[in-house]
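Researcher: Next entry: Neuropeptide y receptor type 1 (Plakobranchus ocellatus).
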Amino acid sequence: MSRTDEADILNDPNATIDELMAFLNGSASDAYDAWTGDWTVLAEPRWQTAIITAYTIVIVFGFFANLLIVVVIARFKQLHTVTNIFIAYLAIADVALCVFNLPIQLHYQLHNQWVFGRILCHVVMPTFGVPFFSSSLAILMIAVDRYMLIVFPFKPRMSNKYAILIVALIVLFTIALSTPLIVSIQYVEIAHPIIKSVKTSCAETYWPSYTHKRVYSVSIFLLQFIMPICLTSFFYTRICTVLHRRPVKKKDTRRNLRTNRILIAVVLTFTMCWLPWSVFALTSEFHNKIIPVRYFNLVDLLLKLFAMGSACINPFLYGWLNDNFKKELGKLFGYNVCCCGGKRPGWRGGVSYSRTTDINNGTVLLRSEGCPRDKASRDQLQPIDYAQVTGDYTQVKGEYTQVRDNGFDQLATFTQVIGQDYDQPSQYESLKQKTGIAAL
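Model: Predicted structure:
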């Protein structure tokens, strides 16, 4: 007679010795599995292989793709803009997730054992959410900058130094919000009295109560995910409304629409990738049995893997859908990328320009009939052309430090149009004398 129900066996006075011994052996085996983590589905080799392979692909691709974005922005001054500063920070946050967060989380959940020491437990674990939550705030600041640029074009634009300061404040703000986790997370060593094994864990054990922990989790979810995404959506809705009211024939309007589509795609990617895991993590605080315990870590890892898909998609949105990035990426690898998408290593062909001046934005708009300019192309302009462009530039208000491409149209500052040779007022005066132009 075989009985497996715990109550039946322990309460049945007629239970045989064999049945009692089988039950006790099974209980000991269950206790050992619970201690070592062998009871989870992740203990199965097939699941471990699949999860490790998928994570390796995402980590390697996400690391190198985002690192490339950071390198391209850092190396080329024409990409040193407010928007690109925030994009570079988003890429750095994704690099941090790929290098530190994902590998450590993966190992901890696969082996149910913290092997990284006491210091990393107190330093790394509480800051797991910093790159993720600060990314949502950086995306919000991109929307704010675009909103001010398009809806209020005559107001001064945010400077690069101010953008860097905002990034620093975002990081400090997110770390400050992680302080309760730093206090609550503890490194614990537990010795099992029966199987004579020591288990180390790094977990939140010092919360005053579950209520405090739940209030904190809800607050973080609202403050660092829902609110930034809602505000970002509001700003882009207003931006699109303003742009669609403007005449479609304006090239600036078409250019802004294209740029905004890319940035909106970044927002949607971030939201769709991270929302499932965020909701799962928050729901688990209130209903920890929403997923069978055997599958909990598997579901958690799969949702984190899906969330990190944004780290692989964003570089594509930054780079391949942005002409500036494609052009500078081509320079990084030693070839020029034409506006039409062609690659011409070492190209030094001619190019001609027509020009107009945008007084409101403080820009000189040059139309090039050829690939983007290089030094040899600029040398083909006669002194009179330099003087005319310089004259136009002296009329514009402020400096417009961002280069933006749209087909064969390019917006640039005086230095980017002319080069360093005529950057000083004295050189400009000398240029006027050489060309015989008294006033421009």
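Model: Note for the record: The longest helix spans residues 210-245.
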